[in-house]
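If your schedule permits, I should be very grateful for your opinion on a structural question. Thank you for your consideration; the sequence and its tokens are set out here:

===
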Amino acid sequence: MIHIRQLLKRYHYVSWALVDQAMVSGVNFLIGLLLARFLGISAFGVFTLAWMVVLFVNSIQMAMISAPMMTVGPQQLKENEDAYYNTLFFQQIIFSTISSLCVLIGVFFIDLFQPTMEVLSFAVPLVATVFVVQIQDFIRRIFFVRDRQKNAVLIDAVNYIGQVFVLAMLIFCSYLSISTALWGMFFSSVISVLVGVWLLGGVAWKKNMLQPVFLQHWKISKWMVGSTLMQWVSGNFFVLAAGVLLGTSAVGAIKVAQSLVGVVNVVVQGMENFLPSRAAREFTNKGVLGLNLFINKILIYLGGVVGCVFALMAIFSKILLITLYGEQYASFDSVLRMMALVGFVGFSIVPVGAALRVLENTKAVFISFIFSSAFSLLCAYPMVDNFGLPGVLAGLLISKIIPACTMYYYYRQSARAVC
């Protein structure tokens, strides 16, 4: 018992990160299940496409601000920490404002070319949600980087439990729609942000730090932004093609499978909260050998656990779908099996990508996703058009295998160069 307590204390950053991601993934799964059941598969497909916009902007924000912070932040001198994080907060507000305006403009363009989607009916809550979700995510990552994991878990609990409560009330009152669902997520995120700012103790920034902090981050993020764009294309272009060629119901079916896989991805996504900063410390203290040892442990031990759970999910895919979503989803068992395999391959990308960021070889990540994006752009239409849903699933798998293999190759090359 004492040994277990010592391990939990030693690796508290891992346990809190996993607790947080377990809660986030669990709630996201529950929200996806409720929306799929009560919106209907077609409207759920439209909501999925709208939420892809939120996730896309959030991924750009992650590349430009949060991801560099998770490796640069732990290296700050104690007397510079507050000024550094507060300056980043101001930059985050600027980015959130600009990106939200871009989304608003994009919504009007979509309405011109696809009026049947009726995107204007949920344009305002979508733009508002894009703005506040970024800020909430930024604050929670500050808490993780500054070793205040309990605060991160608290504001996530406020956000995600609040979303479930609002969604349940909308369903109970028969007032659920794409627009009201987005408003519910917006208001929950606003409350979470207010709690987060209070826990931070207020925000004050120094004007003279804006440029140096931006340039320091840009050195790391310039390739990561490109990589994120390429990663988004490689991971989502097949889904978009499915929406255009197969209809929003196909998108809804894929999202149902992704929601189930997302429960297992608690480990994969949780690693993003501690892995980059922990890998940076291992490299600083023990060099390349320490970094290699750390990354290999993650791949072997966590990879083994993740692989076993995904295998069980594939074996009992039909039972899971019928139990959770009803008989009408039983025919999508092959979708869930393939998405489990996609999730396992995606797991291997996270630790290797973090190691490349520590070695400041984010260009390699960018190149990896160029290959994957090129495949998606060239092959999505013919594969989906000729093979339908199986073509979508095969494309999603290949688009994960390409960057996984490429990044591992570049990591080995970079490690040898440092040695």
In short: The CA atoms of residues 282 and 290 lie 6 Å apart. The two ends are 40 Å apart (CA to CA). The chain has a mean pLDDT of 83.
